[in-house]
Every structure is written in C-alpha cells, then in structure tokens.
Amino acid sequence: MLGKPSEECAVKVMDTIPLLMRFIRADMRENSVASLSIPQLRSMLFIKRNPGASLSEVAEHLGVTCATASTTTERLVQRNFIQRNDHPQERRRVVLNLTPEGKQHLEQTLAQTRTHIADLLESLTTEEIAHIEEGLTLLKHAFERSELKKAP
pLDDT of 66-93, one tens digit each? Predict the structure, then answer.
C-alpha cells in the first residue's frame, strides 16, 4: 500500500540527499588545494554563513564537543583561513571569522564543486533541469519554514 504523497516524497528526499552530500563532500575534499578535512571545510562554510560565530556554535553545527571544534578551528587559524578574536563584551567567548585567504580558498573549492555538479547535470534536458530547480526551491522553502518555527 502506498503512503501519503508527502511520505513518499520524504523517502525520496532521505534517499537522495545523503547521496548528494557524499558527492559534494568527496568533491570538495578532492578540490581543496590545501587538503582540508571535511570537518574543516564544514567549519569554514558555517563561519562563512555565520560571521562572528562562536566556538560552541561551530561545535553544535559539526555535532562534536567544544574541545574537538577548538582543535579543528585551531588548525584553520594556524593556516590563516580563520581569524579568532575575543568577543568585545564577553571575555570567555571567541568570535570566528574567515580571513581573506580562507574566503578565497573556500570560494575556489566551492566553484570547482559547482562546476562538477554542472557537468553531471549537462546530460539532462532544459526541462529536466527546470524540474530539479523547481523541486529544490520548494524543498528549500519547506525547510526554511521549519527553521522559522524553531527560532526563539
């Protein structure tokens, strides 16, 4: 017996997204001229989207302890990809931002991965690509609404 359309769609989302993420992670790792680890790349992406993020926010995003996130970000600080500063109002809080070199490296890695994804999609028709774009837009909006409901 078939489930509701939303349940069938959820199965497809859960089957497809991990496959897509494995491809993106492997490709970004391969394209990282600096040979960064996936946690390092994920940290940089999070900080790019959340300038001034704290160490605990990075840890939560990665699903690791603050100590592990500290080690990950320290390696990025040593390579001049991340800048770590003390928070102006909270002495014990650290503020993380990408350095110009970090931004450049991350953008170069992302651009190469986007090119590889575009190459994979090249065999699809314009109509098929439009369907994918429409579906992704709908999916993004559904999850953005979910995020808004969680916001304090």
Answer: 999 999 999 999 999 999 987 777 777 7
pTM here? 0.80
**Domain 27-113, architecture per CATH:** Orthogonal Bundle (1.10)
**Pairwise CA distance, residues 29 & 90, whole Å:** 35
Distance CA 100, CA 79 (A): 12
DSSP string spanning 54-116? -HHHHHHHHTS-HHHHHHHHHHHHHTTSEEEEE-SS-TT-EEEEE-HHHHHHHHHHHHHHHHH
Tens digits of residue pLDDT in 104-152: 999 999 999 999 999 999 999 999 999 999 999 999 999 988 877 776 6
DSSP letter at 1?
-
Q: Is 122 helix (H, G, I), strand (E, B) or coil?
A: coil
Beta bridge partners of 83: 97
Cα dihedral 108, 110, 112, 115 sign: negative
Q: Where are the domains of the chain?
A: 27-113
